[in-house]
Amino acid sequence: MQDNVAFGIIVSILLVSLIILFCALIIKLYIRKVKNYTKLIYEKDLDYERTLKQTILETQEQLLLNVSRELHDDAGQQLTYLNFMVEHLKYDAPEITPGLDNLSNALANLSNSVRRMSHSLNGQMLVQQNIIRAIQAETQRLTQLNAFKVNFVTDADETKSLAPNAQIVIFRIFQEITNNILKYANATEVTISIKTEPRFKFTVSDNGCGFDYQAIKVSGSKGMGLANIENRAALVGMDVRITSSPAGTTVCVSEK
Fold first, then answer.
1. In which region does residue 224 sit, left (phi positive, over 0), alpha (psi from -120 to 50) or beta (all else)?
2. Shortest CA distance to 204 belongs to which of 151, 162, 158?
3. Strand locations in 29-163, DSSP E?
4. How far apart are CA 12 and CA 211, in angstroms?
5. What is the mean pLDDT of each run of 10 residues along the chain (256 residues)?
6. Helix 2-70 vs helix 164-180: angle between axes, to the nearest 10 degrees?
7. Is residue 187 a contact partner of residue 181, using CB atoms and an 8 Å limit?
8. φ/ψ (deg, to 5) at 243
9. Which helix (H) or strand (E) holds 204?
10. DSSP structure class, residue 152
11. Contact 55, 63 (CB under 8 A)
């Protein structure tokens, strides 16, 4: 009798244990399923965000390409025609040639500026030119603005290639940084540095008035310029480090 009771208790315990184990297994499988589903949703959200950012980037690049072509084909040709008319006028009326020389030089300088601007807006030409040479050419354009002193330092290997999209994005980030300096920094000197070893990295430092970057990060009220820089960098897997103080600002963009 006692043996039967003990046997019944053991069987009951085993049955309860099996039920508990089965429930635990069901719960574990359910949690795993929820995690996988959440992960899938998160990945889909990330893919959607990447696709959206890529679409915005492509739209911006197409717009800039259209502007570049308009500058080159329309404004450039108009300036060439005006300069031709001035030169023709010099030939027909030699007595007023000295007075037209300044106008001719101004038209030539404006034509060169339009051509350089057209090239800087053309993403296809950037890829053909190489990112290092493109940044160097843009640096020369900044120098001619006489807004501040520009130092360009590089030991980069031009043969080290980046993906075409990455080159375009990096150049647009560089333009965003320099535009911010021109608009807000009141800097007198800017230093631009490019390295390719051990990984690609470019740094832009200025001696301007700076800003409280940490306060901006905490408040979440980033300006469009900073948001554009960080969003573009994330799109091509780049890291962005920004430090700023009343003595100036440094922006570093590098491969991860």
1. alpha
2. 151
3. 149-154
4. 72
5. 60 68 73 70 62 62 64 68 74 74 77 70 68 85 86 81 81 88 90 89 92 71 72 85 91 90
6. 70
7. yes
8. -125, 140
9. strand 201-206
10. E
11. no
Q: Which residues pair with 113 in a beta bridge?
A: none
Burial class (CB within 10 angstroms; exposed 0-12, middle 13-18, buried 19+) of 96: exposed
Q: Which residues contact 233 (CB under 8 A, 6 or more apart)?
A: 169, 173, 239, 240, 253
Taking the model in full, what pTM does it have?
A: 0.61
- DSSP-assigned beta bridge partners for residue 154: 194
CB atoms within 10 A of CB 76: 19
CA angle 63–145–131, rounded 5-degree value = 50
| Nearest residue to 251 (alpha-carbon basis) of 200, 212, 201, 196 | 201
Bond preceding residue 198 cis, omega within 30 of 0: yes
Q: Compute the residue count for the chain.
A: 256
How many whole angstroms separate alpha carbon 142 and alpha carbon 145?
5
Q: Which of 151, 217, 170 is nearest to 244 (CA)?
A: 217
